[in-house]
Amino acid sequence: MSSKELAGGCARIALAPLLLFAGLLAAGDCAAQRARSKADAWIGRDAGELLMQLRVDGGRVQIDELDETGETRYTWSSWNPAWTETVTTGGNVIGMHPGGPGVAPTPIFDGPAQSHEVHHDATHRCDISFFADAEGIVSRWEYTGSNCNRDIKRPRD
């Protein structure tokens, strides 16, 4: 193999992770574009439709009057709830009990099983704010968060 062939092979190998990274960026951009498209569908609609179509129970929506602009801001906030899992361990693994046909082997521990709970805090997914003008017509929106594509809903016609 010549050095030219070797260099070309290295370029192809180095290019593969770059293509994967570019694909992931494109997928993220597509998700953001879908979120924007869903939010854009509310522009020009009566703000009352927001309250009729989107969930308002449990403190999900916050409504603020913006005196400086004459707008009303409707903000929905979504969160993954806090949760607790029980983790069971049995000490050090000292062997494996063979499984049968279709049954996975199971570990053999050197001590008794111990369980403890691991708490996971709530995590923020998305805040979407729609702004209605003085006539109550949605004129713009803003969102922040890492999972807005899933949480922003388009209007039902």
Descriptive report:
This protein is an alpha+beta fold. The protein has one domain. The protein is built from three helices and eight strands, in the order ααββββββββα. The strands form three sheets. A four-stranded antiparallel β-sheet has the order 1-2-7-8, with no helix packed on it. A two-stranded antiparallel sheet has the order 3-6. The chain has a two-stranded antiparallel sheet with strand order 4-5. Strand 4 (93-97) and strand 5 form a beta hairpin. It is elongated.
Can you give keywords for this protein?
single chain, 157 residues, alpha+beta, four-stranded antiparallel β-sheet, two-stranded antiparallel ribbon, 3 helices, 8 strands, 31% helix, elongated, disordered N terminus
